[in-house]
Specification:
about 375 residues, about 0% strand, globular, mainly alpha
């Protein structure tokens, strides 16, 4: 699953590292439009997970839905270089994220199914690290091919289609799902459609859902990091290096953070990640040159490495196998709403008050999330 994520993220981030600039510079989109496209796209991916996760619990087949999700994402990649309007870019991004939404919760639940509980944090961290290696390989390829192809963005976007289809082949051939519908001696898979089932998961899970929603409000689309780099004067062909820096920090921190969380409180590690997000936002708010933006991007990546895999691990820790897909889905549904609101608000603030206001607002909400985490850390049921 890590190799699949590596290949698909190489494709996605190659596109994503150029797309905001393509929208703003080539197609003339406003910051609000960029924020709306990114917000709707990412929210769609997160919201759809509730349905795919519930379905994977019902049928007891995680891999099938995961293949469908990755397949849809691969098929949509050629739409980006073909786009002649903001509308087609929106449609391509929206469909691509539908694929991500379908695969997300079943994939996360599958990792929990095949990972021994004692190393579950490390397992999520490993997949996240490989995913993030792809996330900085993509921007590196974007920089290289933009130089080779004289800033021909459309030609570079065509190259992104190749690793996407490789990912689907690796998934079909290399990933094996547990044969039994009962995982690790837990209750067998069953229909998760009753509200009482989710309510029975417990208060810790719902507290985590609330916390994730606030954190999502603090973490708007990373497209704004690219736009900030261009805003301070970084040349177009070098803008993708922002994603390289961010994702190197993300990749280097994800697995160690996951492994550490198997030995200490996961909430402590997530708390450090929230502090990193506050620092990133402040640095990006005051940035006056490209190097300062790179520091902010590295801190942003550190935040992701210290939080994303561990939030998934905490969900897995606090949910039974038979409801795990649904639990991941609901968790991401709430996060998706937060991401949509955050990206739209970020675009409005940028257009009306400038980039500093966007990042300072993010820092303020991150501080609220950190306070909520401190309260959660005092609850005995939190892993």
């Amino acid at each position: 699953m890590g190799l699949v994520s590596l290949c698909m993220d190489t494709s996605s981030e190659l596109i994503h590292s150029l797309l905001p600039i393509f929208l703003a510079s080539v197609l003339g989109a406003s910051m609000l439009t960029v924020g709306l496209i990114e917000g709707v796209a990412e929210a769609t991916a997160l919201i759809l997970r509730v349905f795919s996760g519930a379905l994977s619990d019902y049928i007891g087949k995680r891999k099938l839905l995961t293949v469908v999700g990755y397949g849809i994402a691969a098929i949509t990649k050629p739409l980006f270089p073909l786009a002649e309007s903001v509308g087609l870019v929106f449609a391509a991004r929206f469909t691509d994220r539908i694929g991500k939404g379908i695969r997300g919760a079943p994939r996360d639940a599958l990792i929990a199914d095949i990972s021994p509980p004692a190393i579950r944090g490390a397992s999520y961290g490993l997949r996240q690290s490989l995913d993030t290696i792809g996330a900085f390989a993509g921007p590196l390829l974007a920089i290289a091919f933009m130089a080779l192809m004289a800033n021909n963005i459309r030609a570079v976007l065509w190259i992104a289609t190749i690793p996407a289809f490789v990912a689907v082949v690796v998934l079909i051939v290399g990933v094996k799902e547990p044969d039994s519908r009962s995982v690790s001696g837990e209750a067998p898979f069953r229909s998760p459609i009753h509200l009482a089932d989710l309510l029975s998961v417990g208060a810790t899970y719902w507290w985590l859902v609330l916390l994730a929603a606030v954190l999502a409000l603090a973490r708007f689309s990373e497209a704004f990091l690219l736009l900030r780099a261009e805003n301070v004067g970084l040349e177009l062909k070098f803008v993708p290096i922002v994603f390289v820096v961010m994702n190197v920090a993300y990749a280097l921190s994800s697995y160690p953070a996951g492994a550490l969380s198997d030995r200490v409180s996961r909430t402590s590690v997530i708390g450090v990640g929230c502090i990193a997000l506050v620092a990133a936002d402040v640095v990006l708010a005051v940035a006056s040159g490209a190097w300062v933006v790179m520091i902010g991007a590295a801190l942003w990546g550190l935040h992701l490495g210290l939080t994303q895999g561990l939030l998934a691990a905490v969900v897995a820790d606090n949910t039974p196998s038979g409801l795990r897909g649904t639990a991941f889905g609901v968790f991401n549904l709430v996060s998706g709403i937060g991401v949509l609101l955050a990206s739209v608000i970020a675009g409005v603030l940028w257009d009306q008050l400038g980039p500093a206001a966007t990042f300072l607002a993010g820092a303020g909400v991150a501080i609220v999330a950190l306070a909520g985490l401190a309260i959660a850390g005092n609850r005995p049921a939190v892993a």
